[in-house]
Amino acid sequence: MSSGVVKGPLPRRAPCLAQPSRRPGHGRAQRLWCAASGAPGEEGERPAGSGPSVRPAPPATSPGFARRSALLGAAIPCCACVFCGGGGKAKAAAGASGGGARNTLYDSYFANAMRYGMDDYEAAISPIKSQLFGSLVGGLLGAGSTGSGGGGGGAPIKVLEVGIGTGPNFPFYQMALQQQQQQQGPGSEAESASAATGQRPIHIVGLDPNPEMLKFAREAATTAGFRLRQEPEAAAGNSGAGSGNSSDSTSGISNSSSGRAVEVSLVEGGAEALPFADGEFDGAVVTLVLCSVPSPTAALAELRRVVKPGGRVLLVEHVGAEPRSRPLLRLVQGALSPLQRALADGCNLDRDTLAAVRAAGWAPEVLAAPDQGWGQGLGRGAAVVAGSGGGGGGGDGGALRQFDLPGMSILAPHLAGVMVR
User: Fold this and answer.
1) How many helices (H) and strands (E) in the chain?
2) Which of 15, 92, 278, 323 is the most buried (most CB within 10 A)?
3) Phi and psi of 348, rounded to 5°?
4) How many CA atoms lie within 13 A of 9 on its CB side?
5) Is the confidence at residue 247, as pLDDT, over 50?
6) Can you say how many angstroms the Cα of residue 354 is from the centroid of all Cα atoms in its chain?
7) DSSP 8-state code for residue 291
8) What's the confidence (pLDDT) of residue 214?
9) What CDD domains does the annotation carry (predicted)?
């Protein structure tokens, strides 16, 4: 009779094996633990007879960059994730003004969490981001082709991304540019050459308070085929940026796929005191940032300041549930927000971001989530200006949509769209 004792050493499973799991958040938790602990990964010890290790491929619908941390999702798998990009804007504002020091260890931990913990979220939001970036880029290129925004034919189209984090949005810029090129007709080599020399280049300025995030963002920009600038054009008066130094690891500007030159600058700074001049940018991007800034209204007002009239601002934010129609969910969000803020660098689960948008002077039309065709009403180019623009402050418009992101549990309520300055 067997005594039930296994003789010989037990095979030890490597803690970071990429094993599929049907439990929401379990895979993210495992990857996050591995990234934070430095435990052996796919190449660690494996049970005898097991197959070769395989690095998990990015989700089919995701560009392949993790965006936001899955901290609460790691601790409570039934809750999709707790994430905030540009997180810690309280620290950002203090650091930018010299009033406080950042915690390097926490910054590193949080940057790794955002880089390796948000595959599920990015896969879920990817179709929506694809449509929104198509709208943003289409509008900016349409305005650029008519010469609006000044600066001559060779002046770059400048886009500010606040809270760029680890850079998961770079592939969406790339895809949107490719779509624009395809819409312009078959691109011959001659057309590609003229595009490289005659079309206005795009300059993406990525802002984040966490220097550890920017390390991942540099890698993401290079992977997307964009060229990195060592010294950005910030408000310090050094408008002649772009010379860079030889230590800047740049990949050549990729024109083969999008037909347009793209450069990227990465800047440390906070959302509530943007280090840029008034009307400096043609457009802006803010995704999963307003949940963590101390004053989202101040951050949105700063965006109105630095984006020129007629410019477009892409917004994707998780928000608090409507208290009248979903009181229980809103109650749970409020109860978990203190833990969320501690784990996710200041993120709040129950922010009323739409109220902050309006308080900052923006006046977008608010659209309900449709049964199908999410992007309807958020069309490309000038069609995005479906908003009333009638709420004080002039011609601000655009459209935002309220919707639930499937599978995100307490983080499902979202607000997204493209606003027009």
Assistant:
1) 11, 9
2) 92
3) -110, 140
4) 7
5) no
6) 19
7) T
8) 96
9) AdoMet_MTases (cd02440)
Query: What is the CATH number assigned to the segment(s) 89-420?
Result: 3.40.50.150
Structure tokens at 402: 């309220």
What the block records as the tokens of 94 is 């203090």
Compute the average pLDDT of residues 388-403.
63
> What's the pLDDT band for 304 if we cut at 50, 70, 90?
very high
The answer to whether the CB of 111 falls within 8 A of the CB of 213 is yes
Higher pLDDT, 183 or 172: 172
Residue at 373: amino acid letter? G
- Spell out the residues 6+ positions from residue 346 whose beta carbon is closer than 8 angstroms to its own: 84, 87, 88, 89, 90, 91, 292, 293, 294
CA distances from 228 to 197, 211, 282 (A): 19, 16, 19
Residue 416 to residue 282: CA distance in whole angstroms: 19
Distances 48 to 6, 13, 51, 133, 215 between C-alpha atoms, Å: 15, 10, 9, 47, 38
Q: Which residue has the tokens 């300059």?
A: 203
Pairing type for strands 262-268 and 202-208 reads parallel
Q: What is the pLDDT of residue 388?
A: 36
Least confidently predicted of 34-48, 56-70, 121-135, 227-241: 56-70
- For the chain, the residue count is 421
Query: Nearest 5 degrees, angle CA 238-CA 243-CA 246?
Result: 130
What is the reported pLDDT for 43? 40
Domain assignments of the chain as residue spans, ordered by start: 89-420
Torsion of CA 67, 413, 289, 227, to 10 degrees: 40
Distance of CA 80 to the CA centre of its chain: 17
Query: What residues contact residue 194 under an 8 Å CB cut-off, 6+ apart?
Result: none
The pTM assigned to this predicted structure is: 0.71
pLDDT tens-digit series, residues 354-385: 999 999 999 898 887 655 455 555 543 333 33
Question: Rounded to whole angstroms, how far apart are CA atoms 253 and 262?
Answer: 6
